[in-house]
Amino acid sequence: MLVVNRFRVSASQEAAFRADLTVAHDVLAARPGYVGGEIGRNLDDPDLWVLTTRWESVGAYRRALSSYDVKLSAVPILSRALDEPSAYEVVEPDSVLNVAESRAT
Prior knowledge:
Blueprint: E1 2-8, H1 14-29, E2 34-41, E3 48-55, H2 58-66, H3 68-73, H4 75-78, E4 87-88
Antiparallel strand pairs: 1-3, 1-4, 2-3
């Protein structure tokens, strides 16, 4: 699974945000089920940042979020993400996709 968290960060907060996001990524990367990830900044709109992570499964990602280290070091910065869906299934040739309906209740 793929997780995309986007952030809007002013230039005055950039250095502190980048340091905090790096810590968050490092803590997530240490969790079981982490496959890979990157931190990026938009080329056309430098106030727009992204953290992408890849996980073996949605369960691995959810377990990572519930760990003490992640709650302490990553969740505070992840809570600053833009309010939009962030979890995606990877679409590969001939793969069976999840049910195509919203999970919102």
